[in-house]
């Protein structure tokens, strides 16, 4: 071996990524038909694609028609199995950038340099529904991020809820079977509201904490851009010196976490089943780039047992009041995929895609996931070569001896495909840790081979109670109503009762409120069946029982509201004769605050103002509805208002927005329209004690009022998102 041929350790910093690295890599695979001839897959130009080759124009099609056969074969093979869970998803490209070096805690390169923007691909999803199901169903949402780092792909495959239903992966198939459509009838689609799910859940007290989150408004997000994300499990950070710490990951949207209301979510499922997908797509197209801050909770290894729950138990969170969040960087999603199938459908996540400096723990749920994700990709792709599909390829170099198989893309050179070898100069080489070789964190493990769980996992209610205690009253009300819906759909009374017994252990008052809506009493015999084989051990003895908090305001969305009008959609209802000066001023103010205003009218086309100006209508009533907007504004204009008073669609639009507690603004004649739409009490305008009948988030002004001031009040109401106190006060039929 001469000097040049000797293996030398490539320094891992030889390879650099930047924000555009993934985009450049994908560019090699993109196809652009502009100014090109259509060809067969073999590159032969096609002369005619409207008629098959026949023996006579009325005769049979000929087998030799290679173009017809190829075209049809492709269609016949266009689908792959959908994901068994998280089948419906939406993807986006972007980048992640740390605020400062995290080298003190982890040697992961992409977290160590604030000037590096690491490309990411994110896939948001629902869990239960099939690929064509509605976006707005009650469900957890997947929040999976693939970081294309210079040291390989790192996947943070999380959810928008910080805990999970079960503690051990062996129960995942049962959980999924129970929540999916029932096997005999294949009903219901994308819903937990049926007997088999609640049968299972009620027999599994460990699911109670997650159930509280799933029944809460978290499970009906207003937008993928407005939901939090959580790594759920406890992972490990390891620094250059080998010191390890436990870590939990949190994503927080910079425009705050917000939800739909249930009635709205259900209606959207029919009117726009793509609601969340469309919202994400359009926001990115318009330059309203979704942004999320990544934070971590760090726990020293020595502190493993200082809590009254086990860090390895995925049904528990670490209350932020005990371990505060440390913000470490920000993710911006700024590019839509070019092709849904090639990117969003073919992206394959795996919690075991780790980079040096990040490792797993013994959480038995996480351990099971480490097996499942690659296994399920093999079912989807029918080949281990799915890692070579463009969206899944790392941007850094890949060299190994992994073999052939369906759809192998890479052309390995030479005859050496084994290790150790001398014929290939020992290449590709082993990387020492100093050159970025991944070394698993060393941990002493010993124990008996036993099918059991640690006793430290046995408390299933404290954190469910903590969650309940931490919500505001409107949030509690929504949760109770969600339970009325879900358990109301359960036909078997014994299942309802068993679930109530679980809820009673969370909080007796909560159980009573649920019971009141489903026509049964809280059962007297409150024996709860507990599955799982819990074994007392060192960990359970060391744990500090009762060391936690009773309330955690951090889990309430309402208590952590970020007030912004950015990217909020405002409907402006007009008919002929509207006040154009007012509209222009209010619209300008809304847009300056970052909101989007759309003109809605009975029919598409142009509407004329009272002074003759024409305004283009964006959407007609038949193509939209109040549920597709965050706020409603009805400009003054006698004739316009008069027309809307006679228009069921307009009245419905307003009263429905009111029922959903959305901000509404109008001036002058519009006040009478709000009266008619059940929004304001009759004679509001002429009533001197109008205060009494006014409602939070309903902004009214006289005809002569200052439009800027009026717009300012409206924008303040929009920033608050919803005005829940209206829920109690009104009887709106919409
Ligand atoms: Fe998953 N999960 N999961 N999961 N999961 C899948 O992998 C699984 C769990 C999550 O957008 C599947 O590629 C097991 C927790 C997301 O492509 C499958 C267990 C969390 C996605 C699978 C869990 C998740 C998946 C189906 C319990 C939050 C969608 C398709 C042990 C931390 C990723 C696929 C995407 C997808 C297995 C529990 C998040 C079957 C066995 C907890 C976001 O492998």
UniProtKB/TrEMBL annotation:
<comment type="similarity">
    <text>Belongs to the catalase family. HPII subfamily.</text>
</comment>
<dbReference type="InterPro" id="IPR011614">
    <property type="entry name" value="Catalase_core"/>
</dbReference>
<feature type="domain" description="Catalase core">
    <location>
        <begin position="39"/>
        <end position="427"/>
    </location>
</feature>
<comment type="function">
    <text>Decomposes hydrogen peroxide into water and oxygen; serves to protect cells from the toxic effects of hydrogen peroxide.</text>
</comment>
<dbReference type="InterPro" id="IPR024712">
    <property type="entry name" value="Catalase_clade2"/>
</dbReference>
<dbReference type="InterPro" id="IPR020835">
    <property type="entry name" value="Catalase_sf"/>
</dbReference>
<dbReference type="InterPro" id="IPR041399">
    <property type="entry name" value="Catalase_large_C"/>
</dbReference>
<dbReference type="InterPro" id="IPR043156">
    <property type="entry name" value="Catalase_clade2_helical"/>
</dbReference>
<keyword id="KW-0479">Metal-binding</keyword>
<keyword id="KW-0376">Hydrogen peroxide</keyword>
<keyword id="KW-0560">Oxidoreductase</keyword>
<dbReference type="InterPro" id="IPR010582">
    <property type="entry name" value="Catalase_immune_responsive"/>
</dbReference>
<keyword id="KW-0408">Iron</keyword>
<protein>
    <recommendedName>
        <fullName>Catalase</fullName>
        <ecNumber>1.11.1.6</ecNumber>
    </recommendedName>
</protein>
<dbReference type="Pfam" id="PF18011">
    <property type="entry name" value="Catalase_C"/>
</dbReference>
<keyword id="KW-0349">Heme</keyword>
<dbReference type="Pfam" id="PF00199">
    <property type="entry name" value="Catalase"/>
</dbReference>
<dbReference type="InterPro" id="IPR002226">
    <property type="entry name" value="Catalase_haem_BS"/>
</dbReference>
<dbReference type="InterPro" id="IPR029062">
    <property type="entry name" value="Class_I_gatase-like"/>
</dbReference>
<dbReference type="Pfam" id="PF06628">
    <property type="entry name" value="Catalase-rel"/>
</dbReference>
<keyword id="KW-0575">Peroxidase</keyword>
<dbReference type="GO" id="GO:0004096">
    <property type="term" value="F:catalase activity"/>
</dbReference>
<feature type="region of interest" description="Disordered">
    <location>
        <begin position="1"/>
        <end position="41"/>
    </location>
</feature>
<feature type="compositionally biased region" description="Basic and acidic residues">
    <location>
        <begin position="1"/>
        <end position="35"/>
    </location>
</feature>
<dbReference type="InterPro" id="IPR018028">
    <property type="entry name" value="Catalase"/>
</dbReference>
């Amino acid at each position: 071996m001469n000097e040049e041929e000797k293996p030398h350790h490539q320094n891992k910093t030889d390879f650099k990524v930047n924000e555009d690295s993934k985009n450049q890599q994908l560019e090699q695979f993109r196809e652009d038909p502009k100014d090109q001839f259509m060809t067969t897959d073999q590159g032969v130009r096609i002369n005619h694609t409207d008629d098959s080759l026949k023996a006579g124009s009325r005769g049979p099609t000929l087998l030799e028609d290679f173009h017809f056969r190829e075209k049809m074969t492709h269609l016949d093979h266009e689908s792959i199995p959908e994901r068994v869970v998280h089948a419906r998803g939406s993807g986006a490209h972007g980048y992640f950038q740390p605020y400062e070096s995290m080298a003190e805690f982890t040697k992961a390169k992409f977290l160590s340099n604030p000037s590096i923007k690491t490309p990411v691909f994110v896939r948001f999803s629902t869990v239960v529904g099939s690929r064509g199901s509605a976006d707005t169903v009650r469900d957890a949402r997947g929040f999976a991020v693939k970081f294309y780092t210079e040291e390989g792909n790192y996947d943070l495959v999380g959810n928008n809820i910080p805990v999970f239903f079960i503690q051990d992966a062996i129960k995942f198939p049962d959980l999924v079977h129970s929540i999916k459509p029932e096997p005999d009838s294949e009903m219901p689609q994308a819903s937990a509201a049926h007997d088999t799910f609640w049968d299972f859940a009620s027999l599994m007290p460990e699911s109670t904490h997650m159930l509280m989150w799933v029944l809460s408004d978290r499970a009906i997000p207003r937008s993928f851009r407005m939901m939090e994300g959580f790594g759920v499990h406890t992972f490990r950070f390891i620094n250059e010196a080998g010191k390890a710490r436990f870590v939990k990951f949190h994503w927080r949207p910079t425009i705050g976490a917000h939800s739909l209301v249930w009635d709205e979510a259900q209606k959207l499922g029919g009117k726009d089943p793509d609601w969340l997908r469309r919202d994400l797509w359009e926001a990115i197209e318009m330059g309203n780039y979704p942004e999320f801050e990544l934070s971590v909770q760090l726990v020293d290894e020595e502190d493993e047992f200082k809590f009254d729950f086990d860090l390895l138990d995925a049904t528990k969170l670490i209350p932020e009041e005990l371990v505060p969040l440390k913000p470490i960087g920000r993710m911006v999603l700024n590019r839509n995929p070019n092709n849904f199938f090639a990117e969003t459908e073919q992206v394959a996540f795996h919690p075991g895609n780790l980079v040096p400096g990040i490792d797993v723990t013994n959480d038995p749920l996480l351990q099971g996931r480490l097996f499942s994700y690659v296994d399920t990709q093999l079912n989807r792709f029918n080949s281990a070569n799915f890692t070579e599909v463009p969206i899944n390829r790392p941007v850094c170099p890949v060299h190994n001896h992994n073999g052939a198989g369906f759809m192998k893309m890479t052309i390995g050179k030479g005859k050496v495909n084994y290790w150790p070898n001398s014929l290939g100069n020992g290449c590709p080489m082993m990387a020492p840790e100093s050159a970025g070789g991944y070394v698993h964190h060393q941990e002493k493990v010993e124990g008996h081979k036993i099918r059991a769980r640690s006793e430290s996992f046995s408390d299933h209610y404290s954190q469910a109670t903590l969650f309940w205690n931490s919500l505001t009253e409107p949030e509690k009300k929504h949760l109770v109503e969600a339970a009325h819906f879900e358990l109301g759909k359960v036909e078997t009374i014994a299942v309802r009762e068993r679930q109530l017994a679980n809820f009673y252990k969370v909080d007796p008052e909560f159980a009573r409120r649920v019971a009141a809506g489903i026509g049964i009493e809280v059962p007297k015999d409150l024996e709860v069946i507990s599955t799982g084989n819990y074994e007392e051990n060192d960990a359970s003895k060391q744990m500090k029982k009762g060391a936690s908090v009773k309330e955690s305001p951090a889990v309430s969305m309402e208590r952590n509201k970020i007030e912004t009008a950015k990217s909020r959609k405002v409907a402006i209802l007009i008919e002929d004769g509207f006040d154009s000066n007012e509209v222009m001023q209010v619209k300008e103010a809304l847009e300056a605050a970052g909101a989007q205003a759309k003109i809605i009218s009975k029919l598409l086309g142009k509407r004329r103002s009272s002074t003759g100006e024409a305004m283009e209508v964006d959407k007609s009533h038949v193509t939209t509805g109040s549920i597709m907007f965050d706020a409603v504004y009805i400009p003054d204009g006698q004739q316009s208002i008069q027309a809307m008073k006679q228009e069921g669609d307009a009245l419905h639009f307003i009263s429905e927005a009111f029922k959903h507690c959305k901000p509404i603004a109008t001036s002058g004649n519009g006040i009478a329209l709000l009266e008619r739409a059940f929004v304001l009490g009759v004679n509001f305008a002429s009533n001197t004690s109008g205060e009494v009948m006014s409602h939070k988030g309903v902004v009214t002004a006289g005809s002569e009022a200052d439009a800027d001031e009026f717009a300012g009040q409206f924008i303040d109401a929009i920033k608050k998102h919803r005005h829940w106190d209206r829920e109690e006060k009104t009887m709106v039929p919409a």
